[in-house]
C-alpha cells in the first residue's frame, strides 16, 4: 500500500470539494482531492442542470398547451417526442458535465486520488486498498444520496431515483412519484406536463417546502388542481407486475386503492453519504444522524482538524451553499487551529415548479414570536401576472417589528426566482420596508406585486409613507 502526505485531504470532488481545493491552493497549501465516483458533480450530472433541462422542455409543452388561453389555435394539437426530449436533456447535460470533468482531470495527478476514502484516525485515511493518506487536516465533502423509503426499498432495482430519470431513453407512460418535496415536485410536474401520467404519494400532509401555512394553503389549491397528489396516503405494498409496478395504498380516510405505474420515482429526501466513512475512527461525538457537531460559520467539526462542506453537513443542501461551505472549509483547514468564523449569506432557495417556489431569509416557522409583521400579495389580480395568464400564487414578506427591516419571505408565484433575489438582496442589505418601497418599480411588472406586499407590510407596521420606522413604530419595552 502506498502512503501519501498532504496538507488538506478532501473527500469528494463535487461542488463543495472542488471549491475547497481552490481555496487551499489559493492559500498556498497542498490539497489532495479524493473521489470514489465519476467526476462531474451531482449538480451538473444528476441534479440542478439536468432537472432544469427537463423542466425547460416541460415549460414549452405547457405554454403550447395553454395557447388557447390567448385565442391561439395550434393546428392538430402538439406531440411530445419523448426520445427527442430526453436526448436533448442528455446532450446538454453532457456538455455541462464535460466542462467539470475536463477541469477536474486537469488537476495535477499528485493532487488527485481515485477511490473510496475512510477514516483510520482523525487525519489518516485509507483509500480503497491502495493508499494511506496522512494529512494535516481533512475536509469531508462527500455529498448525499436519495432515500428510498419502505416498501419501495424491497424492490429497489425497480425504483428510479433522480439519477435514473435523466438516463431514460424515452418518457415512460406513467410514474408514481414518492414524495412531495422540491425534487419530487420539480421532476413530477415536468413529467406530467410532458404527457406522462403522474401520481404523487406522501404519507404526511406536506406539499412543497414552505413553512408559512397561508402559502402552503395556496400551494395545495393550485397544485392539486393540476396534479394527482395523494397526501396522507400510506403505501401498503408495491409489487412488480408484467406492465410495471402495482402500488396499493390507503388514502387519508383509510380507503384502499391500487394502480399500476410503468415506473416509480423515489424523491423522498436525501441522506448524507456517511456509509463507509468510518467517522467513529475520528473520536468525534456523533449524533443520531451519524454527524458530529458542526459550525456552519467555520465548517469545523467540534474543535477537530476535520471540516465538513456541502450536502453532507445537512445545512441547506443547495449548490451555492455547497460552494460557500467548500471555500470556508478550505480556508479554515489551512488556518487550523486558528479558524475564522465567516458571515453566511442570507438563505435563498428556489424550486423551479410552476408557479415557482422561493424561500429566503428567516422562515415563517422561525420568526420570533410577537416580533414580526407580515405583508402579502395574491398574484390572482396582479396586473402583469394576469396579462401573462400566470396569475396564481401568493407572496408573504416578513419584517422585524422593532426596526422595520425586511427579514424573510416565502413566495409562490410567477417569476419567484427573480422576486426572491430582489428580496434576499434587500434582506442582506438590511433594508427597511420604507427603503425598499422607495426603490423604483416599473409598470407593468410582476415586481409591482412585491410593492403591494411591502405596502401591506408598511400598513401592518403602522408606518406612514416616507417616514423613518424608528420614529413611528412603537417598540414595547424599548
Ligand atoms: C434533482 C436535483 C436537483 C437539484 N437542483 C438544484 C437547484 O436547482 N439549485 C441548487 O442550488 N441545488 C440543487 N440541487 C442540490 C445541489 O445539486 C447540491 O446541493 C450540490 O450538488 C451538493 O454538492 P456537494 O459537493 O455537497 O456533493 P456532490 O456534488 O454530490 O459531491 C460529493 C462527491 O463525494 C463523492 N464521495 C462520497 N463519498 C466518498 C468517499 N467516501 N470517498 C471518496 N469520494 C466520496 C461522491 O462520489 C461525489 O462525487 C439539486 C439536487 C438534486 C438531486
Description:
By secondary structure, this protein is of the alpha/beta class. 31% of the residues lie in helices and 26% in strands. The strands form six sheets. Strands 1, 2, 3, 4, 5, 6 and 19 form a seven-stranded mixed β-sheet that branches. A five-stranded parallel β-sheet has the order 8-15-9-10-11. Strands 20-21-24-23-22 form a five-stranded antiparallel β-sheet, with helices on both faces. β1 (2-11), α1 (15-26) and β2 form a beta-alpha-beta unit. α3 (48-65) runs antiparallel to α4 and α3 (48-65) packs across α6. The longest helix has 24 residues, at 82-105. It is globular. It starts with a strand and ends in a 6-residue tail after the last helix. Flavin-adenine dinucleotide binds at residues 11-17, 34-37, 41-43, 47-48, 51, 116-117, 141-143, 162, 183, 273, 276-277, 310-311, 317-320, 322.
Keywords:
single chain, 478 residues, alpha/beta, seven-stranded mixed beta sheet, five-stranded parallel beta sheet, 13 helices, 24 strands, disordered C terminus, binds flavin-adenine dinucleotide
